[in-house]
Amino acid sequence: TVNTAQRLQSLAAPGEVLVGELTHRLTRHAFSYESMGDVVLRGKAGSVLVHRLDAPLAAPRAARGLEALGLSAPIIGRDAELNRMLASLDQACGGSAQLVRLVGEAGIGKSRLVREFVTRVGDDDRFRNVAVRQA
């Protein structure tokens, strides 16, 4: 709220930007922050989680869908595609050349599928020495 923003502004040092949790969630795809922890603000019931703006990210990500709201949801109905992509990576790690091509209408979830694939590869010990990047 405007009241919270005013309270945070009064706490900030000159040249410093402090934001609450909602602003942090909505902008963390473009800026780096340092958590200042919970802070009690005058006139507010309870505490507010405060973040100090550090800098713009060198490579900001586009916030899309739920991510634009600082939310996420599990991917549903793409197990076959993800397993096929993981199998291709497994074969590539074994020395067999592989190419994965995603084709589909705009908005069908190609970018989300790739993000989920990259996340799963990062979480899988089989691929701990593999760097996967999105083109």
Topology:
Blueprint (H helix, E strand, L loop, with lengths): L1 H10 L6 E2 L1 H7 L3 E10 L6 E10 L22 H15 L16 H14 L12
Antiparallel strand pairs: 1-3, 2-3
Helix pairs in contact: 3-4
Give a written overview of the molecule.
It is a single chain. With 135 residues, the chain is of the alpha+beta class. It has four helices and three strands. α3 packs across α4. 7% of the residues are buried.
Tell me the count of domains.
Answer: 2
String of helices and strands: HEHEEHH
Alpha-carbon distance between the termini? Answer: 39 Å
- Unreliable segments of 5+ consecutive residues: none
Principal-axis shape: elongated
The largest sheet, given as strand count, sense and whether it forms a barrel, is:
3 strands, antiparallel
Q: Report the count of strand segments.
A: 3
Q: Mean pLDDT, as a whole number?
A: 85
The helix content, as a percent range, equals: 25-40%
Radius of gyration: 20 Å
Question: Which sequence of strands runs across the widest sheet?
Answer: 1-3-2
Return the structural class: alpha+beta
β-strand amount:
15-25%
Number of helices: 4
Question: Quick recap of the structure?
Answer:
By secondary structure, this protein is an alpha+beta fold.
Main attributes of the structure:
elongated, alpha+beta, three-stranded antiparallel β-sheet, 135 residues, 4 helices, single chain
